[in-house]
Amino acid sequence: MPFDGIVTKAVTEELQTELTNGKLTKIHQPTDTELVLTVRNNRVNHVLLMSIHPTYARLHLTNDTYQNPKEPPMFCMVLRKHLSGAILEEIEQIGMERIVLFKFRARNEIGDISYKTLIMEIMGRHSNLILINPENNKIIDSIKHVSMSQNRYRTILPGAEYKFPPQQEKLNPLEIDDESFIKKLDFNTGKMHQQIVNFLTGVSPFMAKEIIHRTGLGSMDVYRDVFLKFQNKLKSKEYYPAIYSTPKEEFHVLKMTSLEDKHETFSSTSQMLDRFYSGKAERDRVQQQARDLSRFIKNEMNKNNRKLKKHNQTLKKAEKAKDYQKRGELLTAHMHMASTGDKEITVIDYYDPDQNEMTIPLDPDKTPNENAQQYFKRYRKLSTSKKVIEKEIIRTEEEIDYFERLLQQIEAASLEDVEEIREELREEGYLRKRNNKKRKKKQTKPTPEQYRSSDGTDILVGKNNRQNEYVTMRIAHRNDVWLHTKDIPGSHVVIREQNPSEETLLEAAQLAAYFSKAKESSSVPVDYTKIRHVRKPNGAKPGFVTYDNQKTLFVTPSSEIVKKLKA
């Protein structure tokens, strides 16, 4: 993802405009890798997200909300001690590097003015947030500590002297001229975009490929012209924030002519970044937290699929029960024709309309009567097993359906939802319950997702089985409208209205399709009916219901519509 020096420059300039001389009013650290600062400036509260996530490290203003822990982490406490109420005097990018300095003016414990600098280093898995005292260049604290054993070049620990990351000896695209740019290129070697990445600081491969695309197969003069235009756009801040639909989504603040027909533009760099990264980091955290849970559920599904296969094989054998009964009855009717020691007997099949002959195998060590009884015994055994197997097949299919629903719920779950799913598996006996000696937490009510349609109608969405049952069986009125994807695992959706408009019905169907296994599909069938027609069978798994009197809509899920309804 090309959060390069150019994007850093654009977002830094935007932050300079929006935040400089603002007052830092709130400091939160939702996770080990994210810091959220609220800066009030010009009577507006701006929420600044700083993330050192190993994959999604970034810096921008955000409209997303973050769940804060009950106990703030140590780094958050240190920042509150030194920066609460501080004035953000200056925001500075180091050259074209992905290093941004936030310079604050604050007051210490005795009321004297003091200066602190919060440094954001965006370097993939080596990203960090470091608070320093600029008077002596000493580190006060950092969100991630790095000892000498981890990094010989510099130590990032409280009390150590701050040192910038090692220089890459690249050229600043804002400072070099076109001749220097041409001299650095080796036209005989090839891989021109990689050459540009290697000698220009702040330029990602994504941007370098765009530069080469603009040159085509041109001469040196064309390369000069393209570079000068690129440089002028940087200097004049002619930004064009957009997300491009390549095989995977990419973004940049300069226009990508090679992908012009596949892009979505934004009014600001922060808006673009917020849209691109929204939910990605949380989904990554949820996947990490739920990795063991997903593995357990998949193992259970595989076990049940193997069991179902064996049951079907046994059922196929049980289908022969009537054959054994028939052989026993025919043998009994022709007992006078058989003798001990016979290996088979050929008799007339009275059950066959054409009265054809039938050969019945015999055990020569048994009498004809014992052979007949043996066939009847097999018949009784298979008949009994068939009834048992049919019940087992139904139960196994229900188990598979249950685990498929849980897997779908994990895909759309938040961290809180994952814990509810884990607790449900404990209650159902699939996971070992927690130590009873520990004090039990008070059972809290499920909190389903709340949405609002274009005409203001409330819509509730269950994200797991507990929420689904709470929405359908407890909250909803008997005449409210209930929706669910047809024969596809998904969320229960309830419209809090007896006669919703067609627009609201379609929007609720969008939610049902989006929070289902068919999220990436088109023309997804969604059933809807009144709550009074929805029932939970006795002994059914959590979240399982039956319904009737339904009608079906077909919709194509859209994340944009879901975000709009959430907002």
3D architecture notes:
With 567 residues, this protein is an alpha+beta fold. It folds into 4 domains: 138 residues, ibrinogen binding protein from staphylococcus aureus domain (ibrinogen binding protein from staphylococcus aureus fold, Roll), CATH 2.30.310; 107 residues, Ribonuclease HI, Chain A (3-Layer(aba) Sandwich); 117 residues; 118 residues, no CATH class. 38% of the residues lie in helices and 21% in strands. The protein is built from 15 helices and 22 strands. The strands form 5 sheets. The chain has a 9-stranded antiparallel sheet. Strands 15-16-18-17-19-22 form a 6-stranded antiparallel sheet, with helices on both faces. A 3-stranded antiparallel sheet has the order 11-10-12, with helices on one face. Helix 4 crosses helix 5. The two termini are 27 Å apart.
